[in-house]
Fold these 2 entries.
Entry 1:
Amino acid sequence: MKCLCLVFDKIKYPDYFMSVEVKGKKLLFTRKQIDDKVRALAQQINQDYQGKNPILIGVLKGAFMFLADLTRYISIPFKIDFLRVVSYGSKDYSTGDIKLIKDVELPLKDEHVLIVEDIIDIGYTLNFLLDHIATKGPKSLKLCALIDKIERRKVEVPTDYVGFTVKKGFLVGYGLDFNETFRCLPEIYQLIF
Ligand code: PRP
C-alpha cells in the first residue's frame, strides 16, 4: 500500500517556508538498495563489536527507521538509547546553534558507544553530539551514518560506518523529513523545488 505522505507532492508550505513549493521528488535509493546497505553495515558492526556489548544511540527523529532496520540485522548483544537535538537556522541550513533537548538515559561510562544517524550534512549536529557523548567517558565512540552528504560540510566529522555518500540535494524519506512530512516513505528521494 502506498504511503499517505505521497499526497504532499506539489503543495506549498505557507506556515514554515512561506513560498517554498515542492514540485516533485526523484527516487534516489530503492527499498532493495537501502536494505542491502543496512544489512552490510550491520554485518560490519557484528564483526567489529563481537564480545563488546555496544550501546547504539539513535539520534531522533531522523534515525528512527534506519536504527530500527539496522538492529534487525545485528546478531550480537547490544543496548539501545536515544537522544534528540534541535538545530537552529533555516530548515535547510543549520547555523551551528545546536541544543540538546533529550539526553541518553543509560550510563555510558566505559561502554562501547555507536551513534546511529540518518544523515550528516553541514556536520554541526554530529560534531556537537560526538563532543557531548565523549564527556560521558565511553570506552569507545564511533559513528554510523546512513548518508554522508558531503558538499556543504563545514566541520570535519569522523565517520566509521557510512551507507551512501551523496554530493548534494534535499533528501527525504526513510526517516528524513521536509517540514515533518515525507519521513514515512520507505525509499529515499531527492526533492525537486
Ligand atoms: C537532521 C539529521 C541530522 C542533522 C544533520 O536532523 O537527522 O541529525 O540534520 O545536520 P547537519 O550535519 O547539517 O548538522 P534535523 O535537525 O533535521 O532533525 P530531525 O532528525 O528531527 O529531522
Entry 2:
Amino acid sequence: MRDELMRDRLMVALDVPDMEIALAMREKIGGEAGWLKVGLRLFVAEGPALVRKLAEEHKIFLDLKFHDIPNTVAQAVESAGKLGVQMLNVHAGGGPDMLKRASEAASEFPEMKLIAVTVLTSDPMSAEGAMRVALERARMAQDAGLDGVVCSVHEVAAIKQACGAGFIAVTPGIRWGGQDAQDQKRIADPGYAIESGSDYLVVGRPVLQAVEPALVAREVVEMMGAARQ
Ligand code: C5P
C-alpha cells in the first residue's frame, strides 16, 4: 500500500532521443513509476503524438520550462493543456506577469497542475543563494496562482513553511549510494527527499542508464517507502 502511494510520487525523466526508445523504456519501467516526465529532448523530437501515447499508461509531467513574454507563454500553456497532461511547468524567472498569465491560461484545465521552476538543480550558485532565490520565486509563483514549484530537496522544507503544505514541491537532483551527480549540483537521496516533504521525485539517468530500469525504480520506491514522514 505504502509502496503504491510512493510509486505515484515517482517521476521518471524520459530523457531519451526518440519514440522507439521512449516506448521501449516505458515497457522496461512498467508500473514501477506512476509518472513519466517528457522534457525538451523527447518533445522536440516527437511532439504531441508521443505525449498522447505515453499518457495511455502513465501520468505525464510535460517539463518544457516555458520562459518568454507573458502572451506567448499563456498561449503555449493553453496548447499544453489541450494535450491532457497532468503537470506542466514554466520558469519563474519569467516574472510575475508571465506567471499570472500562465496561471490564468492553466485555469481552463483543472486536471493540470502548473508549477514553476525556481532555481535549476544544476545551477552552481551557493546553497544560501539558491535558498533565497527559490523562496522568493516560490512566493511569487504562489501569488500568481500556480500550484507549486520545482526546486532542490534542500529548499523544500523552507518553501513548505512559507507557502503551506499543499503547495507542491517537485524535486529533481535525486542521487544515492555515492552515484555520480553528473551535471546536478544540489542532490539528495530518495529517503531524504521524502523526509524533507517533497511531493514528487524526478529521477532520470540513474533509471535510464540502468541495466534493469524497473529494478532501480523499485529500489527508489523502497527507499521512499522506508523514509520517515
Ligand atoms: O538524469 P537526472 O536524474 O539528473 O534528470 C533530472 C531531470 O530533471 C532532467 O530531465 C532535468 O531536465 C530535470 N530538471 C532538473 N532540474 C530542474 C528542473 C528539471 O534537473 N530544476
